């Protein structure tokens, strides 16, 4: 598509991000399993903090999110001056592309990586480069093969959305060691809180040792604050300083800062939410595999179900929607045979199980 305006060519190549749907146009109760949201909602303490914060809507937010950064520092042990908060980690991804790339520069990510990497690269005028994956996993050798003298940012979602797979600490170390110093390695750890695997790394150890590594995190998933748009990143002081120069002065709202700070104080709530997810995830995976479906191993709060062909995936999606269950088509991720499904409540997952059982029965009827 072309534009009569003199905008960057790359902007006209963007396919705008299509969010997971939340409505079905029916009166039926719906099960919203399209956007990897927290099925139990947010901590009541976070909700109360957001509510209390709206008494003074005429006041601008604290621009540097000082209290929140201090709370993150206290909880995770990273120095507050090496943290930045954003309107979702999406904003931080965009700021990274804006600050570190531009025309003639390349942004590298893996084939089925999170869609915002490509969109943010194009918005910044840079060239997106996707490295082929092996078995729906980030392939470090393939990533390294695609590094050129123009590579400025390398994104690895760990775990990745929508595949649910993760890169090991050894793989991240190997990728980092192969990058030139002027390329920034971004470990997008949006789902890291769910992962228990011993060989997993969220990238924070690399950040502590190297100035060209950033880890991004979010309050949208485990902490259930997606509506408020709040994420953060940990990087070297040099990188954080650069990002602060392009950040809007009041990019994180007052309710978002208040709720996120309170959410970190209610750690038990977060751990209960994790426990529910990590109990249901293997159980659902087994149940669906038991009906002959291919379900990829996932360490996040979602699963990727492969229906073997695009028509069957579409039919399954339609069948589920008719039953009030909204999953996520991932054709836009180059996975037209698959649907992604958030791990919801136990009741949601029973409904998914029953609906897919009926779907499979309907195919042979
Ligand atoms: C891998 C990954 N990174 C980042 C995000 C962005 O999250 P937010 O902008 O809500 O922090 C998402 C959201 O789905 C994601 O899946």
Textual characterization of the structure:
With 365 residues, this protein is an alpha/beta fold. The chain folds into two domains: 9-41 and 268-364, Aspartate Aminotransferase, domain 1, CATH 3.90.1150.10; 46-265, Type I PLP-dependent aspartate aminotransferase-like (Major domain) (Aspartate Aminotransferase, domain 2). Helices cover 39% and strands 15% of the residues. It has a seven-stranded mixed β-sheet with strand order 2-8-7-6-5-3-4, with helices on both faces. The protein has a four-stranded antiparallel β-sheet with strand order 9-10-13-12, with helices on one face. Helix 10 (267-290) runs parallel beside helix 12 (346-364). Pyridoxal-5'-phosphate (PLP) binds at residues 36, 88-90, 114, 157, 161, 188, 190, 218, 220, 226, 231.
Give short descriptive properties of this protein.
2 domains; Aspartate Aminotransferase, domain 1; 12 helices; 15% strand; Aspartate Aminotransferase, domain 2; binds pyridoxal-5'-phosphate; 365 residues; seven-stranded mixed β-sheet
Topology readout:
Blueprint: E1 31-32, H1 44-53, H2 66-76, E2 83-86, H3 88-100, E3 106-110, H4 116-123, E4 127-131, H5 140-145, E5 151-157, H6 169-178, E6 184-188, H7 204-209, E7 213-218, E8 231-235, H8 237-246, H9 254-265, H10 267-290, E9 294-295, E10 302-306, H11 310-322, E11 325-326, E12 328-329, E13 338-342, H12 346-364
Parallel strand pairs: 1-11, 3-4, 3-5, 5-6, 6-7
Antiparallel strand pairs: 2-8, 7-8, 9-10, 10-13, 12-13
This protein binds pyridoxal-5'-phosphate.
Pyridoxal-5'-phosphate is lined by residues 36, 88-90, 114, 157, 161, 188, 190, 218, 220, 226, 231.
């Amino acid at each position: 598509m072309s534009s009569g305006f003199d905008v960057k060519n790359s902007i006209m190549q963007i396919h705008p991000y299509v969010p997971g749907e939340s409505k079905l146009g029916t009166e039926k109760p719906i099960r919203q399993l399209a956007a990897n949201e927290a099925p139990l909602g947010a901590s009541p303490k976070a909700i109360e903090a957001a509510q209390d914060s709206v008494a003074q809507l005429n006041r601008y937010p604290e621009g540097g999110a000082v209290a929140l950064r201090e709370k993150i520092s206290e909880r995770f042990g990273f120095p507050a001056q090496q943290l930045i908060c954003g309107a979702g980690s999406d904003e931080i991804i965009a700021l990274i592309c804006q600050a570190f790339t531009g025309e003639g520069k390349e942004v590298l990510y893996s084939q089925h990586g999170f869609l915002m990497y490509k969109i943010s690269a194009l918005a910044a005028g840079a060239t997106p480069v996707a490295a082929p994956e092996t078995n729906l996993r980030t392939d470090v050798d393939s990533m390294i093969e695609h590094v050129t003298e123009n590579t400025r940012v390398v994104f690895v979602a760990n775990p990745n959305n929508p595949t649910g797979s993760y890169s090991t600490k050894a793989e991240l170390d190997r990728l980092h060691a192969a990058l030139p110093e002027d390329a920034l390695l971004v470990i997008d750890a949006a789902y890291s809180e769910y992962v228990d695997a011993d060989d997993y790394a969220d990238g924070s150890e690399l950040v502590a040792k190297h100035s060209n590594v950033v880890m991004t995190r979010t309050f949208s998933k485990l902490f259930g604050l997606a509506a408020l748009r709040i994420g953060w990143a940990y990087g070297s002081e040099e990188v954080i300083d650069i990002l602060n120069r392009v950040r809007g002065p009041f990019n994180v709202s007052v309710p978002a800062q208040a709720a996120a700070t309170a959410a970190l104080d209610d750690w038990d709530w977060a751990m209960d939410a994790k426990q529910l997810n990590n109990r249901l995830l293997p159980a659902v995976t087994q149940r669906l595999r038991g009906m002959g479906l291919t379900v990829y191993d996932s360490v996040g709060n979602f699963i990727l179900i492969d229906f073997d062909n695009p028509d069957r995936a579409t039919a399954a999606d339609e069948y589920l929607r008719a039953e009030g269950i909204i999953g996520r088509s991932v054709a836009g991720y180059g996975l037209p045979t698959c649907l992604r499904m958030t791990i919801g409540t136990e009741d949601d997952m029973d409904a998914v199980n029953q609906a897919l059982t009926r779907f499979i029965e309907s195919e042979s009827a």
